[in-house]
Amino acid sequence: MNRLVLLALVMAACTHDAPFPGSKDDRIVVVIDDKVKTLDPRFVTDAVSVRVSRLVFASLASVDNAKLIPEPSMAARWDQDPRDPALWLVTLREGLRWHDGVPVTADDVVYTFHSVMDPALGSPLRDAYAAAFESVTAIDPLTVSFRLKEPLATFLTDLVLGIVPKHIVEPLGGRFDGTRFVGCGPYRLLAMDGKRVDLEAAPVPPVAKLPHHALEVGEAVPKALLAPKTRYLSFVTAVDEGTRILSILSGTADLLQGTISPVLARELEANRRLVVDWAPSIAFSYVALNLRREGLDDVRVRQALAYATPRETIVASHLAGHATLATGMFSPLHWSYHRDVATYPFDIPRARALLAAAGYGPSRPLTLTMKVSTHRLRRAIARMIAEGWKQAGVEVDVRSYEFSTFFADIRSGNFDAYLLDQPEPMEPDLYRWMLHSLATPQKDRGATEAASVYARYDRRFLPPGTLSDAIRGDPVCAGWATLATRSAIQNAVFTAFGDPTPYSTANRMGYANPQVDCRLELGRITLDRKRRKQLYDEVQAALALDLPVIPLWHADTPVVRRKRLQGYTALPNQRWGGLVGASLSAAER
After folding, report:
1. Domain CATH code at residue 350
2. Hey, which residues does 79 pair with through a beta bridge?
3. Which pLDDT score, from 0 to 100, does residue 204 have?
4. CA dihedral (246, 251, 253, 255) positive or negative
5. Domain residues for 385?
6. Residue 586 confidence (pLDDT)
7. pLDDT of res. 427
8. Is residue 477 in a domain?
9. In-domain check, residue 22
10. By C-alpha distance, which of 397, 345, 346, 365 is closest to 301?
């Protein structure tokens, strides 16, 4: 700690081209690890931009709560047609206004969703919404009708899209001009450049108490529409971890969340001017395996690698003990978490036995390359995982790349294994996005001469194995094969006419299991949450045996703040909603 304090005294923590707005007593400064690329909610994809954007742009629904379930925000209520489960009516709150004072209307909601689904705009969110939404229309100034292509269990989660003002964006050809982002969130934009974003508390109109509706809601006024307790909020980018630490030590910044290694965060606990909290997080760390590669197509090999992964040691050493071992994508904080699945404690003899049963050993070693970004902590973790695999007899070469190169390789399938995080898994339909057999980057007939069966599957229209005996004998999937076949024919026709049905490309592992596909598709259209959970429980049990990805952990978020910052609560998804209720006390002593 003394070394860090000395560095703080002899180095400038951050440099700023312009003075901060307001005084130190009415301004919270947050240091972040990457620049905010845009605030337009139709284009934000990286975690930093998403989190800052949500403070400026409100949405119809929000999942920024401890329960991780959709709650009304700009919406006063939503109602599903009892006779038609694919039709929803969403009613806006009265009195909502944009930051320029213009009232928010149903036309703004309709414009936002139409623009996202318009291929001419080029929103990266288009495929997901265009695949699910048939029409969005205004019934009256406060009521919007959503017609879905089929009943959709994810509909309320899909309403987290930030709404944009039609009167601002439409005259500009559908896009903001890059500096004037006008929203309806708790903060309005003052200034933004590549280094810093300055926000000011926005005028918040009175909001009526929530009327009764089908969902139980625990608060009358959503946090996203409350007036912030502190007037100004600034986000300062510091790419280097040392600079971020120096900024919080010197008092240049008030808050540092999740962008510091756990070991260094633990060192900061001794500083009397700081408070270090460890917030439970839903972030999911995992090792992905390329099942198209010979060797990794054998489930015994994948299970051997899981047994040879020293998760407990890594958590104790590199994560300062602040993590929950994962059994799947969703943490115990999430409603869809399933505990009763296969687990893989560190067991080298068992790993060696499984590898031997698969035909690998000293005379025929399994050779793998693990790819990872240049992030220092991830590189250290990858090396420890590789060391565990080497103890089991696997020859591993760890290679690190700049993130753009790393991500291009994994998107193209150019890997054996890679280490990555899923920062905000909040909707269990993410399993379909990531592991459905048709959600692969290569949507082709497959290579008939390939050694791995996963490389030979036809992934164009019909999920592999749909007509298999396993599906015929599965009571859950009794009617699914017919539905899947009908959908495949429809997709083939659409594709022939140049309008292919969009599928994710996130199944870079090449995984395929028809019984998992069946449950993922049923889970998407099953509206009863209890029944949905049963389907996802079965998915998680199957994935824990098949292991297309090796679950690692859900790391707690280190939250380092100056003691003068009071009332801040970190959310499980690491978003910044807690800043609305945060305030600054008297100067530090």
Report:
1. 3.10.105.10
2. 89
3. 62
4. positive
5. 284-554
6. 67
7. 92
8. yes
9. no
10. 365
